[in-house]
């Protein structure tokens, strides 16, 4: 924290000792309980209106929200289940099929060229270039299991699939949907991968596949998962294979982990720094509260103090009260004295720099310290200016409805 050094010498203010002591009324009085304020009750009217006013309509049902209404509109536009069943039946029975799709294990899946061309422009181009033999076109889809190709072609017909098939072949289906330009199936695969399917064992494989299939959001999720659990993921078989086959990706992930760790350390440092500034702000508010209103057994001489009061809203009051008591009685109060007195001098100096009304301010030495600022060196003045700006920023960050401001009302 860029604050003035507590060990730096302070200006001699021996002539102001009595001024500080005379500003406070420090005593203990027993007694009086806190005032009890009457609770304001809302008066009720005895007048009743006997007009023939119809009853208002009932409130809309909870289900009739904007979201639900939009959902019903979307559901109305969905293809009926009967139509899907018809297209699914057409694919399974392969009646009038004019295309055979050859898979990795040389199996043949019959299909209809018109469906394939409409559902997938890429397949339509392949069909136009394929050779016709006995009225049948033959195309090959190698590199993926036959079952995955079957699920893929079925989706082109009816957008239907079984959950078990999707779980088993989701990576193959993602590749097929990307390669043959089938956005609906690609969205289904991405959604499934993003919601619960990723594990530390497969995240590296999914990351590489997401990069190759142009899925930036899924890639980002994978990278965040690696950064979050780097120790476990870096010991998996997928990481070992990736390290050997794609060292550039390994370097990128390691750098991401290092960068995230640096950001985390920076966030912690800023949080601790902000905490200190907030404590100083609370001390400034508590000091003003004690000098203006008095608190428990300490305060200005023109206030009648009560020995027993409810808990104070200013969190720093208890510690500041003890500090003021010590400062008023300490024989080493002059600069260069005890540590507690130095802290009190620092609070008084900080307040004087933040106070905009030194002529009417009730904090001791406020005006005197403000006049002494001109004697400070440029280096000390720069430190104080930075400290004041940090405390003011922390104060603004609390907002107008902060619990800390509740005590000001």
Automatic annotation (TrEMBL):
GO terms for biological process: protein ubiquitination; regulation of DNA-templated transcription; response to hormone; response to hydrogen peroxide; response to salicylic acid. Pathway: Protein modification; protein ubiquitination. PROSITE patterns: BTB, ZF_TAZ. GO terms for molecular function: calmodulin binding; zinc ion binding. Residues 271-369 form the TAZ-type domain. Residues 97-165 form the BTB domain. InterPro entries: BT1/2/3/4/5, BTB/POZ_dom, SKP1/BTB/POZ_sf, TAZ_dom_sf, Znf_TAZ. It comes from the Eukaryota. Keywords: Metal-binding, Ubl conjugation pathway, Zinc, Zinc-finger. This is BTB domain-containing protein.
